[in-house]
Amino acid sequence: MFRKMLWVIAALMVLSLHGCNSGVQVRVDYDPKENFEQFHSYAWAPPTEAERQEKARNSLLHERIQAAVDAHLAARGYQMVEAARADFLVTHTVTVERRAQVHDSRVSLGYGRYGARGGVGISTGFPVGTTVEEYKVGTLIIDVIDVRQQRLVWRGSGDRTIGEDYSPEKRTEIINTVVNEVLGRFPPVNKKAK
To answer: How remote is the C-alpha of 8 from its chain's centroid?
Structure first.
């Protein structure tokens, strides 16, 4: 009975963690005085020379991001138009950071005794080694610029662990997930100028 209950608890924990985590950590900042309800059309901001060079280095990545952003905004009712007619401009930036996680390994020894009037137990642990796991975290930043004011009014970013051995289909799936998670918070709910 006890063993069965442990399995049920473990299964529920795994399902609850898996079900609510896309692996994307999203952060958003915006101008609370901005009337986001005035936005109906958008265009891509013209890239700076540095952005143009960066995007040329990995054009496949940036084309996937732009396609995902376009699809998400179209599904939300925003129309892509020429920059001169747009209500807002969109731009994006990608960064990749190497990180390390340190894991300490320990061995534990224990002794227990059960007598007629109770029990006694002693346990101790000994460090046996340290392992370092290196990984990469990709960050996608999406900016929304109010055309009339020519200023940033909304920024969303999403962080996710990335790998180098992903297929093109897997890369597209990951980008779509990150874009949808980030733009899922645009526009801010019930946030308009008063």
So the answer is: 30
Which of 3.30.420.40, 3.50.50.60, 1.10.10.200, 3.30.160.670 is the CATH number of 23-96+138-183?
3.30.160.670
Distance of CA 86 to the CA centre of its chain: 28
d(CA 17, CA 170): 21
Tokens describing residue 115: 């007598």
Provide the residue-wise pLDDT of the chain in tens; the chain has 194 residues. 545 544 444 444 444 444 345 699 999 999 999 999 999 999 999 988 988 888 888 899 999 999 999 999 999 999 999 999 999 999 999 998 988 878 777 777 676 677 666 666 777 777 777 888 888 899 999 999 999 999 999 999 999 998 888 899 999 999 999 999 999 999 998 544 44
Virtual torsion, Cα 180, 183, 184, 189, nearest 10 deg: 180
SS3 14: helix
Query: Which helix H or strand E contains 6, and what residues bound it?
Result: helix 2-19
Q: Where are the domains of the chain?
A: 23-96+138-183
Residue 148 corresponds to which tokens in the numbers above? 């009339």
